[in-house]
Amino acid sequence: MDSEGQIKQIVLDRIERCAVCHREFQAEDIKVISRRPDVWTMLVECTDCHARNFVAAVMNEGDPQAAQLALRRLTEEAITRGRIDLEDAEPDTDAELAQELAAAPGTPPVSAGDVVDMHEFLQDFDGDFKRIFR
Questions:
Q1: Which of 82, 91, 96, 113 could bond 32 through an S-S bridge, CB–CB 3.0 to 4.6 Å?
Q2: Is 82 exposed, middle or buried (0-12, 13-18, 19+ CB in 10 A)?
Q3: Tally of structural domains, the chain
Q4: Tens-digit pLDDT profile for residues 97-129
């Protein structure tokens, strides 16, 4: 197994299933975003429900704080732009991660007002999803 296969297997051993729909992840669900000597960043996407998770693998004597910062940057960019598009990304480079993040066609980015609205909604939400989606 090559090093990418080994890293993906380690990720699969740690996050076996989708947290949303509980589908078991496969190696094909993991896309390498950035591959540096000390930290790899990856996107794990469920093919059933399309839930996405960013993962960082710290190599050898890599700095866990650098990995945490890379994940935070990816998450912030994904929130700001709405999604990450990996089809044209170069997995062997940083690929200017922020530039690889693009909004879904026709979908405006999440605004500060959207976040405030959701916060206010969740303060009083009782967890009854059946009532909401009827």
A1: 91
A2: middle
A3: 1
A4: 444 444 445 566 777 888 888 888 888 888 887
CB neighbourhood size of 114 (10 A): 12
Alpha carbon of 60 to those of 6, 54, 72, 87: distances in Å? 14, 20, 21, 29
Q: Residue 13: CB partners within 8 Å, gap ≥ 6?
A: none
For residue 113, being part of any structural domain is answered with no
Predicted structure pTM score: 0.55
Within a domain: 38: yes
pLDDT computed for residue 81 by the predictor: 66
